[in-house]
Structure formats: C-alpha cells, structure tokens
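queue> pop job 88
queue> type: inverse folding (structure -> sequence)
queue> payload:
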C-alpha cells in the first residue's frame, strides 16, 4: 500500500489581537426605588443604601424577554461600531437567566438584529460572563476564527427572585450591555488584553438556585469576604498580563455587585499604585446588580456621561456565581 504524502491543514490568517469597536446597552423603563420595595417587604431606603449602595434599579415588565433586551443592546453596539449587521460573524450572549436552556439566546438575538447565519452560542459564567465573553471573542478574532464578534451580557434576574426575600430582591435587576470586537490592524492598536481568570468551585453553593422555588439564593457575607479578599489580586494580574502597571489604569469597572465591594477593591488597587484620580464605576447605585450585564452597562453609561473617553485604559473585573472570576484591560472605543 502506497502512503500518500500528508497535506498539512491550513489555518486562518491571524490578527495581532482584538480591539473594541462599539458599545451599546438597554434597560427596562420601569424604575423600582428602595421605597417601592419597602412597600413589599421588611426593608427601608437607609438599610439598603448602607448595605449595598443601591438607590434604584430597573425591573422588566412581565412581557419583556431577556432576548428583547439583548437585541436592543446588541443592535446599538453594532450601530456604534459603524459595521453593517452582515459583517458580524459571531454572536456570544453571556447570561445565566434564560427561562429555558434551549433555544439559546444568541441565535435568537442575532436573527432579530439581522445578522445572517453567525456562529452563535450562550456562555454562563454568571456575573463574570461578560469578561469571559470578551476573552473568548478576542481569542476568536486573534486566531482568525472570527473577524467581528458581538458580545452581549444580558440578564432578566427578576424572573429568578423570591420577592419576599430581602437578601436578594433588593440587589438584583434586569438589563443588557454589549460590545463589538474586531481585529487590530497592528500590535500598537491592540485594545483587549489577556484574560486573567479562574474559579472557586469549593464555594459554588454560596450562590445558587433553590430547586423548590427556582429562586436565587446567596450567602451574602461569605461572598462579600471572598470578593474583598480575592478579586484585587485577579485585577492586578490582568494589568500585569497586559504589560501595564496599576498607574496606567484610567478607569476601573468591576462587576457591580455591591458598592462596598467596589470601594474595597478600588482601595486595594490604589494601595498597589493605582492613581487617586482613577475613575471607579458606581453604576450599581441606579442600575442594581445585573450580573453579566453590569460591566458593559456601566462602561456604556460612563462613556455617555463623559466619565470614560475614547482611548482610555479600562480595567474590567467580573466575579460571581460558580464562583467564577475574570479580568482584562481594554481600550475604550
């Protein structure tokens, strides 16, 4: 038997790296204040502000679907990027609150936006999901597997809450945020740094869904202690992997879990050399904790408000159920 010479497999042309091209976000119109919640449960405005820093949050009407919010945010990000929807070849939706696991959110969202036949998949890393999605999308672009990737963080947490449980109902909310990634033309233009990520599976049960009522439950104090201890080193690792120092960071956008956690981590970064004028996201005050949507929501809101500008060096850090965590440095489009 004659052995044929093996023809080597051909790989796609690679890119130096990825960069962010556009941003978008969407939230329900329905604003729920702390006083509104006090009418439904044993709580009050001062108690909520002191513990988590939230003043109000957005809760979707019953007929609003997670895919509706994902579509709005994704379409705005595509428009902001200057691309035609047909130029998007991959859609990633980071979410942990779809009402059913099948069909996925990504394919439905892509079809609604008018993106023809993209690779489309959902990613569940809970509150770290957007950072996981950006990391996956950037690697797809860098490897040549995709050219333009739409990454969306979208959650309808109100479907998964026990509205008599003040330990969770005061915190979580609904919304979506999105970013479009594309190839950097050269090494100097790379705008998404390497991903620093990991998990703490030994603490998985600190945030979980109760099977008896399909409601989210969490051990708040355990999560607080873990986040205020473990997240700053992850953020600093992402800065190091990007070849930067903490003093290079213009804007810090951690997952908007709790304003006390945000402030504690920011203090630790400043103790390691981050500047006093580093802008720190506080979107949780009026958006609540929107899990995988919180980082892109904050980034888009801060850009709209002028608190983050094109070209700024931004440190993103997500952490939450799993427990999963991830961080990367990006350049604001």
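queue> result:
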């Amino acid at each position: 038997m004659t052995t044929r010479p093996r023809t080597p497999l051909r790989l796609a042309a690679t890119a130096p790296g990825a960069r962010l091209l556009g941003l978008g976000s969407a939230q329900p119109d329905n604003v729920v204040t702390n006083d509104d919640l006090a009418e439904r449960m044993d709580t009050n405005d001062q108690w909520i502000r002191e513990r988590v820093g939230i003043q109000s949050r957005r809760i979707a009407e019953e007929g609003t679907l997670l895919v509706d919010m994902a579509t709005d945010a994704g379409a705005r990000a595509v428009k902001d990027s200057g691309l035609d929807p047909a130029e998007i070849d991959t859609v990633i939706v980071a979410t942990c609150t779809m009402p059913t696991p099948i069909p996925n959110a990504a394919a439905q969202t892509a079809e609604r936006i008018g993106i023809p036949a993209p690779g489309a998949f959902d990613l569940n890393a809970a509150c770290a999901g957007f950072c996981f999605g950006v990391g996956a999308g950037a690697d797809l672009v860098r490897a040549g597997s995709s050219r333009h990737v739409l990454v969306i963080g979208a959650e309808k947490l109100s479907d998964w809450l026990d509205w008599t449980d003040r330990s969770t109902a005061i915190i979580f909310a609904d919304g979506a945020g999105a970013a479009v990634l594309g190839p950097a033309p050269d090494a100097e233009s790379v705008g998404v740094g390497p991903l620093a990520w990991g998990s703490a599976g030994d603490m998985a049960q600190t945030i979980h869904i109760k099977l008896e009522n399909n409601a989210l439950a969490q051990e708040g104090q355990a999560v607080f202690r873990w986040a205020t201890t473990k997240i700053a080193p992850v953020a600093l690792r992402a800065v190091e992997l990007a070849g930067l120092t903490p003093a290079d960071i213009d804007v810090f956008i951690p997952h908007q879990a709790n304003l006390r956690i945000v402030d504690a981590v920011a203090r630790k970064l400043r103790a390691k050399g981050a500047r006093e004028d580093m802008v720190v996201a506080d979107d949780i005050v009026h958006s609540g904790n929107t899990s995988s949507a919180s980082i892109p929501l904050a980034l888009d809101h801060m850009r709209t408000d002028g608190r983050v500008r094109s070209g700024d060096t931004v440190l993103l850090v997500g952490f939450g159920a799993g427990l999963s965590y991830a961080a990367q440095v990006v350049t604001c489009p």
